[in-house]
TrEMBL record:
InterPro entries: Arylsulfate_ST, ASST-like. It comes from the Eukaryota. Residues 1-18 form the signal peptide. The keyword Membrane applies. Pfam families: Arylsulfotran_2. Keywords: Membrane, Signal, Transmembrane, Transmembrane helix. This is ASST-domain-containing protein. The keyword Transmembrane applies. The chain crosses the membrane at residues 572-592.
C-alpha cells in the first residue's frame, strides 16, 4: 500500500515537473515571491566587453493578461542583470506583474540616472490605456505619462526620452474607415490601422507634435494587403506597422514601418515625407537590402548626412527575404542625386538565425554593439570590428524580451536590504546561524558584513563578512545568533546601506531532536563569542578556522547541500508542497484525479479563447 503510494508520488512528481518545470526561474530565500528568468551566458572574449548592465523586460504573453491569469510569484516586467546573467533588480512587483516594454536607463533627466519604460495598457484597455513611466534610481515612480486619448493606446514599441530631457517620442496607432478606391473597389470600405508618432512633453504629457500615415503612406507601399484582400472591421488592416521613431537636431523624424520595409524621414515642419529608405519606393541607391526592420535610430545626423542603425534582416510572420538577421549601421548622403546609402557595419545574428519579430540594436559608448534578438531573450555584444564577445538567452523558450539594452547605471534603492537568518544544530557544540541577504536594485555592492547582537538594544557585533557573489548571498556563522543584521559595502569600503534588525528563525527544537543542556537553546551573546580580538575575518570573507570546530563545519556542509538540493527542485515552495503532498498520499488519498501542483502561472481556464481575444485587442505588438 505504502509502496504503491510512493510510486504514485514519484510518477506524479515526474509528470508535474515535466509539465510545469520552473528550473528556468531564479528563487530566493529573502524574496520568496520573486521568480526572475535565468540567463544562460556564453562568453567568447571578456577583455573587450563594455561596462554596463543589461536592461530587459521578459514577458510570457505579449498581450495584456487578465488579472485572474496574472502570474504568481513575480516573473515578468522590468529587470536589470549584470554581465554574468545575475539579477540586479526586478521591478515586477512594482507593476503587479504587468508587461512593460522598452525598458532602459535615461541620463537626460537630471544628475541622477532614471529608468524609463512603457507600462502596457491593461486587459481592460478602456480603463487603463498604458503609460510612459519614469523611475528614479531609488526605484520610485517619478512620472507616469498617459497618451492623449484621441491618439489611441500607449503603444508598446517606443518611449524615447530625448537627449534634452524635455520631450519624449512615442509610436502611435490609429484606425480610419476608408474606401478601397486605391484598390479599384471604390464602392467598398474597410477599416485601416495606420501608424505614426507623437512627441510629448515629459512633464505634462501634452502633445507637441504628432503624425499619422493616413493620407501620407498609400496602401500600395505595404506588403501584406492586395487589391483582392477582403475588408476588415476595426481596428483594420495593419498596413504599415510602425515600430520605432527618432528625431534629429534638424527637427525631422525617422520612422520605421515594418510592413512597408521602409524607413521614412518626416519633416518636422510640415509632415511631408522627405525621403524613403528601402521598400518599393526607395529614394536611395543602396548597396544593401533590408526588410522588416526594427528600431531605426540616428547615430549622427546633420540634416543631409546621416548615420543610422537598425535591426534588419529580413523576415516576418509570412515571408523571409534573407536568411540571417543583422544589426546594420548605414550612412546616408541626401545631398547628392541620386541619394546614396551604404553599409558601414553589419553584425550578423551570432547563431545565423532570423529574428522574425521584434528586437533592437544599440551602439555602446566604446563602439561595441549590443543587440537584442528578442525571442527567448537572445542578446549579443559585438566589438566594433565584428568580434562576437558573448551571447546570452533565457534558459527556456517561454519568455522573450521585446527590446534589450546595455547601460552603465547606479541603483540606490530606498528600501533597505532584505535579510533572513536561520539557526540549526543538535546541541550547544554545533549550532550555526545561516544568513541570506539581498538588496533588490543595489549596484556596486562588493561585500556583505553580518552582525548579531545580544538583544534589541545592544550594539551589533560583526560576525563575519563575505563577498557578494550573486543577487542573494549566504553566510554561515558559528553559534545561535539572534537580532541579526547585514551591511552592504562597496569595493572602496563605503557602507551603502544596512538591513533592519531581524530575529533568527529556529526550528521546533523538540521535533529536530535537539539534545543540548539548556533546552530550548538560547541565543549567544555575540560580544562574548565574537568579541574584539578573538575573532578575525580574512579578506576572502572566511572566519578563522579556530572559531569553527569540525562538527560545526560538517553541519554547515550538510546545510549547504540541503540548500542546494532545495534550489534544485525549484525552491522551498515546491519542496514544502511536495512534502505536504507526500503526507497526503501516505494518509491514503490515493485517488487524486484532477489534482495539480500550484504552478508559477495561474493558467487561464479558457486559454485558447483568451489568447485569441488578446490578439484581437492588441494586434500590433510585434
Ligand atoms: C542579410 O543576410 C544575408 C545573408 O547573410 C546577406 O547576404 C545580406 O546582405 C544581409 N542583408 C543585410 C541588409 O544585412
Ligand atoms: C554634414 O556632414 C557631411 C559629412 O561629414 C559634410 O560633408 C556636410 O558639409 C555637412 N553638412 C552640414 C550642413 O553641416
Ligand atoms: C536562404 O537559404 C536557402 C536554403 O539554404 C537558399 O536556398 C536561399 O538562396 C537563401 N536565400 C538567401 C537570400 O540567401
Ligand atoms: C540558449 O543558448 C544555448 C546555447 O548557448 C542553447 O543550447 C539553448 O538551446 C538556448 N536556449 C534557448 C531557450 O534558446
Ligand atoms: C572607489 O573610489 C574610486 C576613487 O575614489 C572611484 O573612482 C570609484 O568609483 C569608487 N568605487 C566605488 C564602487 O564607489
Amino acid at each position: 500500500m505504502l509502496g504503491f503510494g510512493v510510486s504514485l508520488l514519484l510518477w506524479l512528481c515526474q509528470t508535474v515537473s515535466a509539465q510545469y518545470t520552473s528550473d528556468d526561474l531564479m528563487s530566493f530565500v529573502t524574496l520568496p515571491n520573486i521568480r526572475a528568468a535565468k540567463f544562460d551566458v556564453q562568453y567568447h572574449n571578456r577583455e573587450r566587453v563594455s561596462p554596463g548592465y543589461w536592461f530587459v523586460s521578459p514577458y510570457l504573453h505579449i498581450g495584456p493578461d487578465k488579472p485572474s491569469s496574472l502570474y504568481e510569484p513575480y516573473q515578468i516586467g522590468p529587470h536589470i542583470y549584470d554581465g554574468e546573467g545575475r539579477l540586479i533588480w526586478t521591478g515586477s512587483q512594482l507593476f503587479d506583474n504587468r508587461n512593460v516594454f522598452d525598458f532602459k536607463a535615461v541620463d537626460s533627466l537630471g544628475p541622477e540616472p532614471r529608468l524609463s519604460m512603457v507600462l502596457q495598457y491593461s486587459w481592460d484597455s478602456k480603463e487603463d490605456t498604458g503609460y510612459g513611466v519614469v523611475l528614479t534610481n531609488d526605484y520610485k515612480v517619478e512620472r507616469k505619462l498617459p497618451l492623449r486619448r484621441d491618439l489611441g493606446l500607449f503603444d508598446i514599441h517606443e518611449f524615447k526620452i530625448r537627449e534634452d530631457g524635455k520631450t519624449a517620442l512615442v509610436t502611435i496607432y490609429l484606425s480610419h474607415e476608408i474606401t478601397l478606391a486605391e484598390f479599384g473597389r471604390p464602392e467598398e470600405t474597410t477599416w485601416l490601422e495606420t501608424g505614426g508618432f507623437a512627441e510629448i512633453d515629459i512633464n505634462t504629457a501634452e502633445v507637441i507634435q504628432w503624425w499619422d500615415s493616413y493620407n501620407h503612406i498609400t496602401l500600395s507601399e505595404g506588403v501584406h494587403y492586395h487589391p483582392n484582400t477582403p475588408p476588415e472591421g476595426h481596428p483594420g488592416w495593419d498596413y504599415v506597422h510602425v515600430n520605432s521613431v527618432d528625431k534629429n537636431d534638424a527637427g525631422d523624424y525617422l520612422l520605421s514601418a515594418r510592413f512597408t520595409n521602409t524607413i521614412y524621414l518626416i519633416s518636422g515642419i510640415n509632415g511631408d515625407i522627405m525621403w524613403r529608405l528601402g521598400g518599393k519606393y526607395t529614394d536611395f541607391e543602396q548597396d544593401f537590402m533590408f526588410s522588416k526592420q526594427h528600431d531605426a535610430k540616428f547615430i549622427e545626423s546633420n540634416g543631409t548626412h546621416h548615420i543610422i542603425s537598425f535591426l534588419n534582416n529580413a523576415s516576418d510572420e509570412e515571408f523571409n527575404e534573407e536568411n540571417i538577421s543583422a544589426s546594420l549601421f548605414v550612412e546616408l548622403d541626401t545631398s547628392v542625386t541620386p541619394k546614396t546609402a551604404r553599409v558601414l557595419h553589419r553584425y550578423n545574428r551570432p547563431d545565423q538565425q532570423l529574428s522574425r519579430l521584434r528586437g533592437n540594436t544599440q551602439l555602446l559608448p566604446n563602439g561595441n554593439v549590443f543587440t537584442c534578438w528578442s525571442k527567448e531573450g537572445y542578446i549579443s555584444e559585438h566589438a566594433a570590428d565584428g568580434e562576437i564577445l558573448y551571447t546570452a538567452n533565457f534558459t527556456s523558450p517561454r519568455y522573450s524580451s521585446y527590446r534589450g539594452y546595455k547601460f552603465e547605471f547606479t541603483g540606490r534603492p530606498s528600501a533597505p536590504p532584505d535579510l533572513v537568518a536561520s539557526v540549526l544544530g543538535t546541541d550547544e557544540t554545533n549550532m550555526v546561524t545561516t544568513f541570506w541577504v539581498s538588496w533588490n536594485g543595489a549596484t556596486d555592492v562588493a561585500w556583505w558584513h553580518f552582525y548579531a547582537q545580544a538583544s534589541e538594544f545592544t550594539t551589533p557585533v560583526l560576525i563575519g563578512k563575505t563577498a557578494r557573489d550573486d543577487f542573494e548571498t549566504t553566510y554561515t556563522g558559528h553559534g545561535y545568533l539572534d537580532w541579526v543584521s547585514a551591511e552592504a559595502v562597496d569595493a572602496n569600503g563605503t557602507v551603502l546601506g544596512r538591513s533592519e534588525v531581524y530575529r533568527s528563525n529556529h526550528p521546533d527544537w523538540a521535533a529536530v531532536g535537539y539534545k543540548g543542556k539548556s533546552n530550548p537553546p538560547a541565543p549567544i551573546d555575540p560580544s562574548i563569542v565574537y568579541g574584539v580580538g578573538d575573532h578575525k575575518v580574512d579578506d576572502a570573507g572566511h572566519t578563522s578556522s579556530d572559531a569553527i570546530d569540525t562538527q560545526t563545519q560538517k553541519t554547515i556542509q550538510i546545510l549547504g547541500h540541503a540548500y542546494d538540493a532545495i534550489h534544485n527542485i525549484s525552491g522551498f515552495f515546491s519542496f514544502l508542497l511536495l512534502l505536504g503532498f507526500f503526507a497526503a498520499v501516505v494518509a491514503g488519498y490515493l485517488v487524486l484525479r484532477g489534482w495539480r501542483l500550484r504552478v508559477y502561472q495561474r493558467l487561464p481556464r479558457e486559454d485558447a479563447f483568451l489568447s485569441e481575444r488578446a490578439r484581437l485587442a492588441s494586434p500590433h505588438q510585434d
